[in-house]
Amino acid sequence: MGYTDNYERDPYGIIAFFLRNDYDHGRFFDREISHYETELARANLNNVQRLGKIWERAAKKQGDIGRLIDDAQHATNEFHSLLAYTMDKSLHCEVIISTPLSLIDHMVREAEESQRIFKLIDSGETYTPSDAIIHESVFWLRQMADHLGYIHHYVDLSNYDLHHQITQMTEKFQRLLLQAQALQTMIRPPRNKMLPVLDQFRKMLIPEVQDLEKFKLELDDLIKKCAAATTSPPDLLEHIAREAHHLWRNLEDEVIS
Ligand SMILES: [Fe+2]
Ligand SMILES: [Fe+2]
Question: What is the H or E stretch that residue 107 is in?
Fold first, then answer.
């Protein structure tokens, strides 16, 4: 698993994870912008370059962390604005791109999660393990269910059996998301105590997310070898496997990061 070699969970590593996430989104989006949309393509590329440079600094743990967070926040805010603006254009059928609306929304939400995490690291704010499990599962399970939908979107229709398997996994993750949302409203704040139902949910979730990570990595391998008919960017599956990895590590450590 190549990506886990440089997946670190100290503040620099977490900042690098989110910067790389947005950087990848920009690169993937670049492939799907029509050549008629020169301004959008240029603006997106500027964001990719800027995010890439800050990501590099974070990955090398270079310089003062306060300055790094500040730069990361500015770059993420700008990218978020571009995506939200494009999503609105797409809703009004005023832009020529092949990216589905829900995928733009997915990227907007991950940019917003980056903004939250940068703020959290900067403020040193504290939260309880119960709050962490509820936040992580409600936020990321929707992303996990979405990922399976995007695999559907990119994998060629001729892979009938794979599509069937993906449908079943999507339904499973949608049910897990509903359970997380139910726990969120049933267990009201302040969530000082870890309730057995929430801990049991966490324990059940970790292996499910690990299996999803494994599935994504297996498909990643096939796509990189050009052995699966797909229109997916070559490293998209690795990207979404990394997000699954991030989720189960956070569930294991009972933290928001
Ligand atoms: Fe992502
Ligand atoms: Fe994602």
Answer: helix 101-123
